[in-house]
Amino acid sequence: MITGILLIVSAIPIASFALEHAFLLFGLICGIGCMISGFSDYRSWLSEAKGT
After folding, report:
1. Secondary structure of the chain in HEC code, one letter for each residue
2. Which residue range is the domain that position 27 belongs to?
3. Which has the closest alpha carbon to 38: 50, 30, 26, 28?
4. CA distance to 2, 10, 17, 29, per residue, from 42 (Å)
């Protein structure tokens, strides 16, 4: 019983730490994705501007 409680309590900070890193990674991937899509939009806009 006590061992189970200790295991749960010790697992909580590890889980929150992992969750935090997962959120950071997700944010990083989303940010990079937004940058890439924005860059491709910018390039297409630039080629259109040069074309005219």
Report:
1. CHHHHHHHHHHHHHHHHHHHHHHHHHHHHHHHHHHHHHHHHHHHHHHHHHHC
2. 1-52
3. 30
4. 60, 49, 37, 20
Encode pLDDT of 1-52 as tens digits. Answer: 888 888 888 888 888 888 888 889 999 999 998 888 888 888 888 888 887 6
- Counted residue by residue, the chain has a size of 52
Domains held by the chain: number: 1
- Cα-based distances in Å from 19 to 29, 32, 49: 15, 20, 44
| pTM confidence score | 0.52
